[in-house]
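If it is no trouble, can you show me the amino acids of a protein and the tokens describing how it folds?
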Amino acid sequence: MPSAGRRRPSFLSRHVPLAIRDEESFDARFESVSFEPGDRLYLLTDGREVRINVRDSGAGFERSSDAPMDSEMAPSGRGIDLVEELCTSVAYNERGNEVEAVLNW
């Protein structure tokens, strides 16, 4: 995975509260994504860093870091900008069907 070249400062606190929701509450708030054979989702943590790697079997897309959202009020498509804002680093493979996001606290 190539380096994103864009680093974010670590959080001052090493304690990040995580919400635990029952399945019905979770489903009501979040969009479900179905996985196809070959898709992968990895979540790794050492207690100070969370590393998430998502690979999709689709064609991928080209992500330009200087292509901001047209509108903050858009009904969809804000996820990538939000992940890039919150994470320490975000890197995409050349094909655009795999992303690795790293969050340090």
About this structure: Helices lie at 23-29, 79-86. The CA atoms of residues 6 and 85 lie 10 Å apart. The first helix runs from residue 23 to 29.
